[in-house]
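Is iron/sulfur cluster placement plausible here? Inputs below.
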Amino acid sequence: MRTGEFGILTTQVSKLIEWGRSSSLWPALFGLACCAIEMMATSADRFDIARFGAEVYRASPRQADLMIVAGRCSIKMAPVLRQIYDQMPEPKWVIAMGACASCGGVFNNYAIVQGVDKIVPVDVYIPGCPPTPDMLLYGFNELQRKIREGIPNPPDPLKESGLKLLGPTEERPG
Ligand code: SF4
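Reply from A.M.:
I modeled the complex. Tokens:
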């Protein structure tokens, strides 16, 4: 029976902020290969990622806090991927979607990065070739859980190693 009286809800400010962040992730508009088609399907009405507050794909990394690496990443694309990641404001998160992004997949060759965790810190890996939209949603829910529980990002692979990625137009050290 409804009495019309309000209860009292107590929480910590940090928990409230983490809940807010996890419920309003804005992914960067960024697809690399066939996995991106599944990522697009995740936004469509059948799967509807809007239920989790993440339907606002942003064309500018400055407005995004989630990078879904959907597809294989070539060596030539690696500096671009890193630059987009660097342009995203903190706090930010990365999902490696599919076998190619997670470990190179079937492309065990010199042209493909053997896992994007060599370039950016990856919070959630999603297996499969391609992973279905349901799998992406499951991975996304796992990321939300990590954010709500305050689990920090993994170490940045480039900061750890001190390496710098050079783009095609940048000067190489002599
Ligand atoms: S994991 Fe499969 S579907 Fe995804 S980019 Fe690689 S080859 Fe394409």
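Short version: Residues 13 and 114 are 40 Å apart (CA to CA).
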